[in-house]
Amino acid sequence: MRSPRPLRTLSRVLSSLTVASFLAVAAVPSAAQTKGPNSVADLADNLLDAVVNISTSQNGGSGQGNVPMPRLPEGSPFEEYFNEFFENGRPPQRRPGPGSSLGSGFVIDAEEGIIVTNNHVISDADEIVINFADGSKVNAELIGADTKTDIAVLKVDPKAHDLKAVPFGDSAQMRIGDWVMAIGNPFGFGGTVTVGIVSARNRQIGSGPYDDYIQTDAAINRGNSGGPLFNMDGEVIGINTAIISPSGGSIGIGFAIPSRLAMNVVNQLREYGETRRGWLGVRIQPVTEEIAESLGLESASGVLVSGIDKGGPAAGGKLEAGDIIIGFDGKDIDDVRELSRSVAESPVGETVTVEILRKGERMSVAIELGRLEEGEKLAEASAEEGEGEAVEVESAQLLGMTIAELTDERRAEFELSEEASGVVVTEVEEGSVAAREGVQAGDVIVEIALQSVSSPQEALDQIESLKEQGRKNALLMLASKSGELRFVTLRMN
User: Fold this and answer.
1) Class of CATH domain 1-273
2) In angstroms, rounded to a whole number, what is the distance separating the alpha carbons of residues 29 and 31?
3) pLDDT digit string (tens) for 397-447?
4) Is 190 annotated as a binding residue?
5) 79, 292, 103, 314: which is closest to 190 by C-alpha?
6) Has domain 278-375 been given CATH number 3.40.50.150?
7) Segment holding 238, helix H or strand E
8) 224 annotated as belonging to a binding site for a ligand
9) Which of 27, 38, 380, 409 is 20 to 30 A from 94 via CA?
10) Superfamily of domain 399-491
11) In the record, which residues are listed under signal peptide (predicted)?
């Protein structure tokens, strides 16, 4: 299997995400086709004027807008080509100079002059120029951008050109086999129309935390990035963003960001100039078959809470390490990706109901969501102070144990001395590797692999470091309630 090629450069590879917004004006007179279109001429004629070419210029500097290399799972089929593009983890340098055709975009609000494109298309630009199908050009200003989804919202003077907008449709209604049309500016050839079908849905290509691509065989090439993918009603149901290709040209495997994901981001960028995603304040991991079996679950579904961010919305006992999240705000949760998207799309400050399994008992917990961006700022501040790369956690799930900070309250609860230092084990899963080695609630983890630990975060980081080194076992020094020390070896897989 070949890896996804980026649409944004003349390099061999492309990685981008694009999205669009909700307000639209022009109604597109076209009936949905159920048996495949005999011709799409009328549909294309009504849509072409809403799709634009975008070029930029820079006074100096270089780079691709600080586009990060996608985090790909080890052994991913995409790894080879992304590595070619992002040499040493960084994209190739772009020479400063006059503007050149970089990508596509489309008008979503003719009265306000709002255009949507990819963030990477306009990132670091000193001047953004919108090129229309009739050859005219107008300058645009950046309203807001989101690096996580690679979306940017632009604004032009609506009086400077006669604008035509296109509406968003519901990507969730698209079925595999439905006809779609792509319009964009591949290789600088403006106003190019291609037709295909929805080949697959919910594709993950490792490009970001909200991967959920529509796959299509409509021909998409470099320069289509930021352009719309239409249904046969002329509604935007996706944003063309990446391709798989050995040469950079289309071989019939392209990816588009679904409109359902795009609309919320674009609306926030229009209103605030930035995103405001919900934040639950937990560390999560998939429920594997092994975890499901150890917890007595019927199936490996839901999301395991492995840690609670200190000071986050779920702190203070609302959620605990070891909880299994099975529902969020009335929706069933089957996996990590589904929970991440559901939380991010929820309004900041909203009180949501989280359905969990705790020690086999189903219960509901009400939590007021925080703002993800504020949580990230806390993490950055923590990293700058040398406290780790993430917000400190007050409790965590580790090798079959629930561990927590050694506070005065917990010293009293487990009858521990003032001299005890480390992290306290508050609970041990029955049948876990820790239970088999005789670890008990009230034991204190003093060291992991001969390195002292003083917080749940340090314990998590130390175990992760051992795994990265290829180690299979972790050597723990434990202190009992009486202060007696002993070593145990716990298998990490």
Assistant:
1) mainly beta
2) 7
3) 888 888 988 888 888 888 888 778 889 998 888 888 888 888 998 999 998
4) no
5) 103
6) no
7) strand 236-244
8) yes
9) 380
10) PDZ domain (2.30.42.10)
11) 1-26
